[in-house]
Design brief:
8 helices; two-stranded antiparallel ribbon; about 0% strand; 2 strands
């Protein structure tokens, strides 16, 4: 089985992004561990501290391919609507931690890289699971996400930089 076939099983990656990821990442043997592949992709926040105090909400480093960062961002946005585990991360960051959409998506993308690494390393397709660890279908995943992890509209609007225009 070609590695891109296993990657296609990861929600958000699919048949479009799998070949791009294979082309950029190559084989899992290139990377020592999950931290190494995340660093290669540029999915680490920059460190900015003054007087020993880290500033929260850091932007991502400039390292890593812009193509892979864009692909991971797109994949993470799709995956959070299908995978209950990723949806829970997104929901927690948006609702409980006060992050805005891009920050939450980048956190989801980081977790998605871990899944990509494991699938590349093992060659086994990804199995979508619910919160209890039971295997589920994509449709069941979407239903769970919609029922349990929908970010309220008020929260979403309060996290935006620009206020939404009021419809007449």
């Amino acid at each position: 089985m070609h590695p891109s076939d296993a990657l296609r099983s990861i929600p958000g990656v699919g048949s479009t992004l799998a070949p791009l990821l294979i082309g950029i990442l190559g084989h899992a043997k290139r990377f020592r561990n999950e931290d190494h592949i995340r660093g290669f992709c540029g999915m680490f926040p920059t460190k900015n501290s003054s007087g020993g105090i880290d500033k929260p909400g850091q932007r991502l480093t400039k390292s890593g391919s812009d193509r892979i960062k864009r692909a991971l961002y797109i994949a993470a946005d799709v995956a959070r609507k299908i995978d209950p585990d990723l949806a829970a991360v997104y929901w927690r960051l948006m609702v409980n931690k006060g992050h805005h959409h891009k920050q939450a998506i980048c956190a989801v993308a980081t977790r998605l890289i871990n899944r990509i690494y494991r699938v590349l390393k093992t060659g086994q397709p990804y199995v979508l699971r619910d919160q209890q660890g039971n295997a589920i279908t994509v449709q069941e995943g979407k239903r769970i996400v919609l029922a349990q992890f929908t970010v309220p509209l008020e929260v979403r609007q309060s996290r935006r930089n620009q206020p939404m225009p009021q419809s007449a």
